[in-house]
Every structure is written in structure tokens, then in C-alpha cells.
């Protein structure tokens, strides 16, 4: 028979309204946990055996060799303790009082910061009805703020009887008998963190609160961003502290992004099928604790000190990002948990109250409803699940300092009785909360359930990932441009995406284009570079026979699958990448860039590297420390210049998609956006519906009397240079063009302009002083890269020279100098002209520096052509008595006899450019 719980362990119910563990002024703590259908719940506290117990006077000792089974004995005492010698730990169990309105309570007379604890729950075992209580299993506190340990692939982690075979596969039925293997030591436990200091954040920097119109999101993985960072000492690589390092922050500031969107940093656990295969979930979309940060991203020192130090490192990271001017957006996963399907482990919710937490079939409650593809789905029709999620979000915002959240598979969070509605109680709870409602809230607007695609349907104040923008932009610049392709995306579709996707986001009064999170790539899919290198996914490293990941990539390889040393192919790829990023950053809406795309990061064609915690997903930073400007540096410069231009323009805040007047039929066409065809005329209806229309101009008009300027976004989607007649009310200048990636730029008149190199090719590493702390690092990286680059360059140069010599049959015997060989074999009739020799020498210098030909613009074949064209221009100019600009190379053999017309500009083929009004 149970003995009554002493009064000193009871809690007045009126004071306990939320689950969790709360420190009290008497030196103890109140513990509250929810389980509506359990028969009994225990709070278990863990202490080392070699330390005096805080509960010695009250706890009844029970022994492992007792004739009474452990589970029955703990029912008999309000407080009992046992020693597990094999783990050198003491477990003290406090029988809780309840349930009262679904809650169980106990008051600990003593509690301390860093205290390790868990719950045990007893009740019915009826898997066919979805009831799976098992007191042999340790359960995390759903509200626990710290975590210690991890789940091992062991029968103890499963509530049903099972075995682990020699192949690491779990053998047993989830609908079979209950497991009687104790889980202690095989699963993680919660760690108490004393959070009573209300003044701890008083000295924090103010949150940046970047307006949506100025926001540029940057999606990154805490570990992957700095795991290979050479500027960090080894102990900081791949950590929260590494992301907060001054050099890391300086890089992000140099790029110009405003808001750092972190892949999940809530504590995670590998899914069962990954554990069976000995692999790990790198992305982290498998949440173990919604209040605890992931410990593995903390420094070793913080992990050694415990959960409190891990959390402090996260808070310090957020504080450092705020001080540097960045918002911190956190990716969160409330649609499912790491427990997976019914065959998965029991670590928290399944053991506490599986019926209340998870959605299940009405006619078959033993089976879980899965709209996430991960085995289970949180039941957001349960008020207590909604409260749990909101409490977690408020904790991260208030205590950690997070500025916003991106909700994974958010359509699941808005399902009532299986159907999505933007009027879901959870969405209203977010809107109406005084704290959360003023943060940036971003939805991934789809899931795997019925009618799972809901882009544009969440309403205010939510923003949403815009997959329509992603797919249309990819198709326009990649698949539609390939030889033999029939255009599928024309002016109308691209204009809609450039204008903020009003077709999806003009859903209610006041909802503007900033609600559209425009992106071309994200963590889920190809990188930007891989989009232009691979026509098909290459996920063999994932161990799933390349069946995982989407086949609908809208990518192109430009003739070669994977990396290529063909300069022509590399130029096409770089131009395509710039077109994609240019469209992203010049469109109305909120742009999101994935980390690494600004310098050409690759994942080797893997479009689903969720389990690749290695160099496939870790960013490679060696390019940053070469003493000549690398292609990566040049792309970074082009992107940071475009971001700066976007932020300087007060034109990206349109909120006039939809007004109350629209509801009664009084439509007001926007005067802020105008459209032109290349001939300067306004498009007719037939033009909008012609998918072959791939060249047009979008004008964003300023309505300010200040220094604001109109801009033109000029798109030439054809494979030839094209003349555009720009509006004649202003003079225009080109501020940025994707064609600069291949050395071209729009220009007035009937020819494009070829850009000269604006510098001598050196970069910041050449001015690092010997006393600078980073000098040794620069020298180490440069020497290592230079040795490999010289070897690769010599081999490539010799191979190219031999190939061309064989093709032309030129006699270059008598010399072994690769410079002379290259010049002689590339120059007309075998004559080594000064221009060709100079060009070939430049090519060798570039190859010695390790730069690919795309930015050197000096591969031997191209060098010959440029030399001939430049000489022809000089000859023509001399004949006319005019000075020729060696940087300008005509693309039209016939010069306009009447001179360049004021409003006529020639725009390079397949490019996007931005023209600013000259004031």
C-alpha cells in the first residue's frame, strides 16, 4: 500500500500552472510535469556515490538483490534511493502527486544548479491503443533547460522488448511485450539550470531589429561554417564560440548580410535508422529537447563544465552577433520529435503521454499519423502541445535573445483535424503573443500531408519560403537556356517573381512583398555552384543508393557533369550563378543566401547531405588566404557589392499589394513598378503571355523627394547581346551586372564593354604586417596552397600546349620553355607576337597562382583571340586618328554611323543588370 507523500514534498496547486523545474527561495525546487493518463510519476535525481546525498534523511534505501521487484518497491515509498555500483551513481526517486488537471507535482527540499534528473512513469501497457507507459525507462523533462548524455543503440532505450542484432538492426515488435531493461545510463537525462536572476541580460546589446525591407538572410550551420576555418584555433572550430569570433563576424559584415539564420541548435538525437547504420544527423532536424541547446556545438571546455556552460556559450554567441549588428534567426522543428514512429526509442513524450502528444488514427490509435516523413507528428489540436511550443519559443527569445524563428514543415503546425487553416490556434497564439508576435516569424509552407503545399497562405505577420521563386528563377536561367530547350518561363512569370510574388502573397490587407522569402538554394538541395555543375544528384555517399533527395532540381551542367577545366564551360557556369544571385538580390521580397554560395562552395553534387558531417558539408576557406585574388574572392566582391547596392536603395518595402479598398473592388494599380520591352515600349497582353519573351526591363520608381533614385533591372534572357532603349526621362549608369563575371558590362551604344582588371590582382593578405596575429596563418596556408597550385598549373599548361601543338601541327622544337611553347602554338601561323607572348605569360602567372581560367580571362586560346582583336582595334583607331581603349572589345563589327544614341544600351547575352538614375 502506498504511503502518503509528506507535506514538505507537496506543492499548493494554485501556484503551479506550467510544467518545468523551478528553483524556490527555500533552497529547493518545484517540479511539475504533464501526463494526463499515467497511474504514477516519479522525479528521479542523480548524484555521485562519493558525495553526501542531499536527501539522506528522507530516502528509504532499496537494494538490487531485494526480493521485491524494483518497480513495485518504488511504489511503496514516498522517497527512496538506490545505488547502481556499475555506474557509480545514486538514484533518488520522489513519488509525485497527481494528476491534477493533467499535472503531477513534487517539491524538492534541496536542489542545485547543474542537478541531473529525469522522470519515470507507470501506467497501462496497451500498444494497440497507443498506450506505452514503462517505468523502466528514463524520460527527459520536456521543459528541461539542459541535457547530459546521449541515447545509445541499446534495448534499454526502447519501451518494447527487443534485441540489437550483430548488424545493428533492432529486432522486436513495437506491439509486443513491455521491456523490463532499465534505461539508466543508456539515455540522456535533464540538467537543472537556475534561471532566477532577472537582471542577467540587463547589459546585453540592443537587438538590431532590422526592417524587413533591409533584411538579407544568411542560412548557415553552426558547425559547418567554422569547422574548417583556418583563422580559428582548433578548440573553437565548429562551435558557438567560433561563430562569435571577431574574424568570423568581420567576414559576415564584409559580405553585408543582416540576419543570420541558424540551422537547428536545439538538442538533437540521431534517428533510429541512422543509428542502425552508424551515421549521424548533421542538419539537426530531429529534436531531442526544445529548451536545451545542442551540446556538441559547444567547445570541449564548455561541455566539460556542463549544461550551464553550454547555454552560456550560446548566449555569448547571440550577444556577439548582436553587438556586430546581426539578427539571429533560429530554425526550429515543432512538427515532429526524434522518437520517430512506434518502433522508435522512448526518451520523453512517448513515455510521458503518447496519446496526448502525438497525432494518431481515429480508427487505429496504435498507429501514428505522419505528415512529416519522420515517423510521428505533434498534435497541435491539443492545447497543451500549443502551450508547450509557445513556452519554448518564448524561452529562446527572452532568455537566449533570439530575434526570430523559421518553422520547419510549418503546414503541419496549422492542421486542424488534418486540414490546414491559417486560423489555427497555434498560429493565432504566435500572432497575439506580445513577445513572439514582434519577432521575425518565417514559415516553411509545406509538409507531406494531404494538400501539403501552402505557399502564401499563412497570412500576417508571417513570412514564408517562396519555392515558386526558387523554381522559376532556376528554370529561367538554367534549364531554359540549354541547347534545344523549349522555354517554359517567360516575362510574365519572371516579372511576377521579381515583383514579390503578388500572386501568392497579396492575400490580405497590408501584406506586402517582404513576406516572400526569396531564395534560389537552401540547405536542402544543391548548392549554387552544384546547380551549375550537375544535372543529376550524386548522393551515393549517403548510403541510400542515390534514392534519397529530390530529382526535381532544375539544374544544368553546361555540357560536363561535375567540375571542368574547360574555360568556356566555367565562364558559362559563373555567369549563370551570377544571374541567379542577381535575380535573388534585385527582386522585391526578402532574399536568403546560403552560406558558401557567395564564394562557390560545393557539396560534390550531393543534394541531400543531411547526414554528412564532414568535408562534404563543411565550408572550405583556404581560398581566403592566397596572396592573389582567387575566383572565390572575386565572386565574394561581386555579391557584397550587390548587397550593398540593394541596402542603399529605399525601394524594397512595397506594402501596397492589397488594401481594404481591394476588398470592395477598387483596385489601384501600383505606380511604383513599370515594365518595358527592349524597344522601349510597354508590354501588351500578348507579350505577357508569350513565354518566348525573355528580355525586358523592370523599373522601380522612388516616391521620395530625398536622394532616392529610380532603378532599372534589365534582363537579357537571350543568348546574344541585345540593344535596349531605356527610358529617356533620365540618364542611366550601370551599377552592377552579372556579366562582369565574364568581363563584360552593358554600355551605351551598339556594343558591350569589356572590363579591364581594376587592380594588380593582389588582396588583403599582401598588406598583413609581420606583427599581425594572423601573419603566421597566412604564410602557412599560402605555402601549402602554392606548392599544390604550381604543380597543378605546370601539368595543366604542359597538357594544353601539347594538345594545341598536336592540333595545329606547329613546329615548336628547340625550346622547353612553356611560355614560348604556349605563345608559339597559339599565335597565328606560329608567329610569337608580343601580344600573344604577353597573354601566354599572364596565363602561366595565373596558373601559378592557382586561379582557374574563368577569372584570369587568359587561357591560351582566349589570349590569342583577344590579342588579335585588340591589335585590329588599334590598327583601325590609328587609321582614323583616334585613341582606342584596349579594355573595350566590340561585339558588333559595324559601328553605329550616327554615333551612340543617348537611350540605347547594349546588354550582354544572358545577363541581369541594374541601372541607376544619374542625379
UniProtKB/TrEMBL annotation:
InterPro entries: GH (IPR017853), GH13_cat_dom (IPR006047), GlgX_Isoamylase_N_E_set (IPR044505), Glyco_hydro_b (IPR013780), Glycogen_debranch_GlgX (IPR011837), Ig-like_fold (IPR013783), Ig_E-set (IPR014756). Gene3D superfamilies: Glycosidases, Golgi alpha-mannosidase II, Immunoglobulins. Belongs to the glycosyl hydrolase 13 family. CDD domains: AmyAc_Glg_debranch, E_set_GDE_Isoamylase_N. GO terms for molecular function: amylo-alpha-1,6-glucosidase activity. SMART domains: Aamy. This is Glycogen debranching protein. Residues 540-564, 845-888 are annotated as: Disordered. Residues 540-551, 863-877 have a biased composition (Basic and acidic residues). It comes from the Bacteria. GO terms for biological process: glycogen catabolic process. The lineage of its organism: Bacteria, Bacillati, Actinomycetota, Actinomycetes, Bifidobacteriales. It comes from Bifidobacterium moraviense. Residues 219-646 form the Glycosyl hydrolase family 13 catalytic domain.
Amino acid at each position: 500500500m502506498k504511503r502518503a507523500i509528506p507535506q514538505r514534498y507537496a506543492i499548493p496547486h494554485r501556484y503551479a500552472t506550467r510544467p518545468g523545474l523551478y528553483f524556490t527561495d527555500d533552497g529547493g525546487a518545484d517540479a511539475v510535469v504533464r501526463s494526463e493518463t499515467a497511474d504514477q510519476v516519479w522525479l528521479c535525481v542523480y548524484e555521485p556515490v562519493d558525495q553526501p546525498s542531499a536527501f539522506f534523511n528522507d530516502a528509504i534505501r532499496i537494494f538490487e538483490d531485494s526480493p521485491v521487484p524494483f518497480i513495485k518497491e518504488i511504489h511503496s515509498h514516498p522517497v527512496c534511493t538506490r545505488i547502481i555500483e556499475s555506474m557509480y551513481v545514486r538514484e533518488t526517486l520522489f513519488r509525485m502527486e497527481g494528476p491534477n488537471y493533467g499535472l503531477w507535482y513534487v517539491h524538492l527540499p534541496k536542489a542545485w544548479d547543474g542537478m541531473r534528473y529525469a522522470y519515470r512513469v507507470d501506467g497501462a501497457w496497451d500498444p494497440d491503443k497507443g498506450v506505452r507507459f514503462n517505468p523502466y525507462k528514463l524520460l527527459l523533462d520536456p521543459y528541461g533547460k539542459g541535457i547530459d548524455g546521449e541515447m545509445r543503440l541499446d534495448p534499454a532505450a526502447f519501451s518494447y522488448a527487443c534485441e540489437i542484432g550483430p548488424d545493428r538492426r533492432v529486432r522486436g515488435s513495437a506491439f509486443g511485450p513491455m521491456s523490463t531493461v532499465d534505461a539508466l545510463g543508456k539515455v540522456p537525462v535533464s540538467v537543472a539550470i537556475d534561471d532566477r536572476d532577472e537582471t542577467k541580460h540587463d547589459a546585453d546589446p540592443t537587438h538590431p531589429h532590422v526592417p524587413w525591407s533591409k533584411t538579407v538572410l544568411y542560412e548557415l550551420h553552426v558547425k559547418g561554417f567554422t569547422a574548417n576555418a583556418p583563422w580559428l584555433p582548433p578548440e573553437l572550430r565548429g562551435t558557438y564560440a567560433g561563430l562569435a569570433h571577431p574574424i568570423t563576424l568581420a567576414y559576415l559584415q564584409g559580405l553585408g548580410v543582416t540576419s543570420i539564420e541558424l540551422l537547428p541548435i536545439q538538442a538533437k538525437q540521431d534517428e533510429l535508422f541512422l543509428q542502425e547504420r552508424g551515421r549521424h544527423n548533421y542538419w539537426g532536424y530531429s529534436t531531442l529537447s526544445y529548451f536545451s541547446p545542442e551540446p556538441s556545438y559547444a567547445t570541449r571546455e564548455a561541455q566539460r563544465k556542463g549544461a550551464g556552460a553550454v547555454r552560456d556559450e550560446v548566449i555569448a554567441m547571440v550577444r556577439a552577433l548582436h553587438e556586430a549588428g546581426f539578427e539571429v534567426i533560429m530554425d526550429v522543428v515543432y512538427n515532429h520529435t526524434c522518437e520517430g514512429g512506434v518502433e522508435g526509442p522512448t526518451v520523453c513524450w512517448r513515455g510521458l503521454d503518447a496519446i496526448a502528444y502525438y497525432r494518431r488514427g481515429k480508427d487505429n490509435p496504435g498507429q501514428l499519423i505522419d505528415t512529416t516523413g519522420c515517423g510521428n507528428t505533434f498534435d497541435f489540436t491539443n492545447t497543451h502541445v500549443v502551450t508547450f511550443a509557445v513556452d519554448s519559443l518564448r524561452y529562446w527569445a527572452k532568455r537566449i535573445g533570439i530575434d526570430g524563428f523559421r518553422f520547419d514543415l510549418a503546414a503541419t503546425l496549422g492542421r486542424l483535424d488534418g486540414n490546414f487553416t491559417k486560423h489555427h490556434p497555434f498560429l493565432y497564439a504566435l500572432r497575439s503573443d506580445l513577445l513572439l508576435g514582434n519577432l521575425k516569424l518565417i514559415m516553411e509552407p509545406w509538409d507531406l500531408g494531404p494538400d501539403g503545399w501552402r505557399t502564401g497562405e499563412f497570412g500576417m505577420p508571417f513570412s514564408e519560403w517562396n519555392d515558386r521563386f526558387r523554381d522559376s528563377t532556376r528554370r529561367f536561367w538554367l534549364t531554359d537556356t540549354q541547347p534545344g530547350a523549349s522555354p517554359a518561363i517567360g516575362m510574365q512569370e519572371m516579372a511576377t517573381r521579381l515583383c514579390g510574388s503578388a500572386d501568392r502573397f497579396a492575400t490580405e490587407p497590408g501584406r506586402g512583398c517582404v513576406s516572400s522569402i526569396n531564395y534560389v538554394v537552401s540547405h536542402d538541395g544543391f548548392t549554387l555552384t552544384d546547380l551549375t555543375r550537375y544535372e543529376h544528384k550524386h548522393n551515393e555517399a549517403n548510403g541510400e543508393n542515390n534514392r534519397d533527395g529530390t530529382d526535381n532540381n532544375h539544374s544544368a551542367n553546361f555540357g560536363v557533369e561535375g567540375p571542368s577545366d574547360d574555360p568556356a564551360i566555367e565562364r558559362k557556369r559563373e555567369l549563370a550563378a551570377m544571374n541567379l544571385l542577381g535575380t535573388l538580390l534585385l527582386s522585391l521580397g526578402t532574399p536568403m543566401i546560403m552560406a558558401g554560395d557567395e564564394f562557390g562552395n560545393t557539396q560534390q553534387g550531393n543534394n541531400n547531405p543531411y547526414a554528412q558531417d564532414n568535408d562534404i558539408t563543411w565550408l572550405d576557406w583556404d581560398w581566403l588566404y592566397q596572396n592573389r585574388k582567387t575566383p572565390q574572392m572575386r565572386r565574394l566582391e561581386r555579391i557584397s557589392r550587390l548587397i550593398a547596392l540593394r541596402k542603399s536603395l529605399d525601394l524594397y518595402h512595397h506594402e501596397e499589394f492589397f488594401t481594404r479598398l481591394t476588398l470592395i473592388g477598387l483596385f489601384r494599380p501600383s505606380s511604383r513598378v513599370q515594365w518595358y520591352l527592349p524597344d522601349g515600349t510597354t508590354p501588351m497582353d500578348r507579350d505577357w503571355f508569350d513565354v518566348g519573351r525573355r528580355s525586358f526591363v523592370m523599373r522601380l520608381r522612388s516616391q521620395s523627394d530625398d536622394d532616392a533614385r529610380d532603378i532599372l533591372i534589365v534582363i537579357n534572357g537571350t543568348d546574344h547581346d541585345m540593344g535596349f532603349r531605356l527610358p529617356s526621362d533620365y540618364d542611366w549608369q550601370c551599377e552592377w551586372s552579372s556579366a562582369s563575371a565574364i568581363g563584360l558590362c552593358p554600355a551605351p551604344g551598339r556594343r558591350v564593354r569589356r572590363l579591364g582588371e581594376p587592380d594588380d590582382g593582389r588582396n588583403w593578405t599582401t598588406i598583413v604586417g609581420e606583427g599581425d596575429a594572423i601573419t603566421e596563418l597566412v604564410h602557412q596556408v599560402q605555402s601549402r596552397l602554392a606548392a599544390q597550385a604550381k604543380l597543378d598549373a605546370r601539368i595543366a599548361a604542359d597538357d594544353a600546349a601539347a594538345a594545341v601543338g598536336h592540333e595545329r601541327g606547329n613546329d615548336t622544337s628547340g625550346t622547353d620553355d612553356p611560355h614560348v611553347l604556349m605563345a608559339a602554338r597559339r599565335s597565328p601561323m606560329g608567329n610569337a607576337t608580343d601580344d600573344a607572348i604577353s597573354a601566354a605569360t599572364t596565363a602561366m602567372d595565373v596558373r601559378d597562382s592557382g586561379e582557374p581560367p574563368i577569372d584570369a580571362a587568359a587561357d591560351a586560346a582566349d589570349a590569342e583571340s583577344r590579342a588579335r582583336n585588340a591589335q585590329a582595334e588599334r590598327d583601325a583607331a590609328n587609321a582614323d586618328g583616334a585613341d582606342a581603349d584596349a579594355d573595350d572589345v566590340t561585339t558588333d563589327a559595324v559601328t553605329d554611323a550616327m554615333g551612340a544614341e543617348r537611350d540605347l544600351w547594349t546588354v550582354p547575352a544572358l545577363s541581369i543588370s541594374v541601372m541607376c538614375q544619374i542625379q
